[in-house]
Design goal:
Elements: H1 3-15, H2 21-33, H3 40-46, H4 52-70, H5 72-88, H6 94-109, H7 116-122, H8 128-139, E1 142-144, E2 151-153, E3 162-164, E4 171-173
Antiparallel strand pairs: 1-2, 3-4
Helix pairs in contact: 1-4, 5-8
Bound molecules: zinc ion.
Zinc ion binds next to loops.
Length: 176
Amino acid sequence: MTSREDSLFGRIAIDLGLVKEDQLREALAEQARSDRARLLGAILVEKGHITEEGLRQILLAQREKLAPLKSGRERRQEDASFGAIAVKEGHIANEDLDRALVEQFRLAKRGLFLKVGEILVKNRKMTEDQVLAVLRVQQNRFVTCPGCGSRYRVLEGKPGLVVPCKKCGKEIELGK
Ligand SMILES: [Zn+2]
């Protein structure tokens, strides 16, 4: 578990009222002292500060918060559709998009994650208004799962198509 996830874990535990500040500090100190990698949640359970049920609640809330940060594949899909729309609507040329994607890849290797739209604005290939216009077109092509917030592409020309969410199983209308 990274320290970023640990601090999110701790914040959620406190927000949910499942752990007190001093209990969390004590567990973090113990985690830092330990010579093997230990999960913060496991330490809190072991010390009797939270129950297994409490741990489950925190992990669920944490997964929801981390989901948008972690789904790199969804992000790439959205970027690809953003680029396709931007080209189709005549805001940029194919070469502009290719260059932006190469730059995006280079930046990502250095740990800097920019959306393709942000890179295009940075390089003055698009204005912010143009980006917003593309995002509006794009919004209509995705639906958000009401159960878990996962995003799915709308399949045009398939009216009434309903499929279960791959993550949570809730039914989503994908046809337009
Ligand atoms: Zn879902």
